[in-house]
Amino acid sequence: MTAVHTVAIAGSGAAALAAAIQLAKAGIAVDVFEAKAEVSALGSGITLQGNALRIFDALGVWDEIREAGYVFSGLHLRAPGPGAPVVAQLPDVNSGGPDYPAAMGMPRPELARILLVHAESLGVNVRFGARVTGLAQSDAGVEVFVDDESAGTYDLLIGADGLNSTVRDLIGIETKPESTGMGIWRSFVSRPAEVERSELYYGGPVYIAGYTPTGDDSMYAFLVEKAQDRVGISDAEAAQIMLDESRAYDGPWNSIRADLAAGAPANYTWFTKHIVPAPWNRGRVVIIGDAAHSCPPTIAQGAAQALEDAFVLSELLVTRDELDAGLWDEFHARRLPRAQAVVEASTQLGQWQIDGDRDADAGGLIFGIAQKMAAPA
Ligand SMILES: Cc1cc2nc3c(=O)[nH]c(=O)nc-3n(C[C@H](O)[C@H](O)[C@H](O)COP(=O)(O)OP(=O)(O)OC[C@H]3O[C@@H](n4cnc5c(N)ncnc54)[C@H](O)[C@@H]3O)c2cc1C
Question: Among 3, 172, 273, 351, which one is least packed by beta carbons within 10 Å?
């Protein structure tokens, strides 16, 4: 027996597809509704920490993920100015335990494609161009409306529909993401051979400059600045801003600037933070991933936390007989304190940058969170 037999999922990001995969493996019928017309082919890179890699292994996609990305160890800090000298080499904390590398980078579209192919191979029915717009609950089930038409009645609806979650609104949860005061420019560029791990530059004209390798030939580069209204900016202006704001950084940034000058697109987004207090469910509807919590990527844990939500929820759904208060209590007990610790630490790290607090123990905070993550969720 399982607690549910039919599940609808809003969204097709990491949280949605991880849940879909685990539920389908247990024989549960899963329909995924994704508002976008197709799987993302564009996008930057993502850093995946060990605790995310451990979950990919459980999903059955770890080998493919490793193949499609760039595994690395350690973190280097460099200084602005000529030669971009390395000023610190920070050791690894294997947040997925000893069986997985500390971290890796990969192109976001590759991650999306691997999860989608795996979910569909297990029988998950994925509909693109299908926006969840409404729901109606009873004791017997939840009727899900897609583009204002009934798509059927399910035992459970999982709202894995991201930061601006419609499902969160539909169940009356008012907590919403708020700006942390920082914005980030990102560009997907070629990898100079000397870049073999994530490197961060503190000091200079922006809060943080950095890059992370995502493959033999690729990496993503970023500049974190004070959040500004960048709405309506043209592609050429965006690239020019990254060029201008990165001039203080030498070394691999020369190669990044060459790519930007040759047309590598730059995109901008604000950092947000929020955590929905328990419960994350209302009856037969639950939110997970960015719908439930968000944080600045200062320790690159957002996707890992989304995956952990999906993993713990699906484990409970397939091992319990009833969708009852006991199931939800255990879900919240296992997920909320952990997600909250990540949101608080990630936000604190950003705030220390904004405040210019040079004495803050950033290394200690990062180390503490990584150790916490090393115990499975
Ligand atoms: C600048 C930046 C950098 C980041 N870097 C990292 C990093 O390096 N490492 C890391 O771990 N995390 C990082 N994160 C966080 C990470 O991207 C997110 O935490 C993670 O992608 C959340 O996954 P999700 O599945 O919850 O949501 P999403 O990936 O946002 O998926 C939600 C999906 O729902 C769909 N959708 C929305 N509304 C509806 C609807 N009504 N009906 C149907 N579908 C709908 C959307 O189209 C989308 O496909 C970063 C975040 C930002 C902003």
Answer: 172
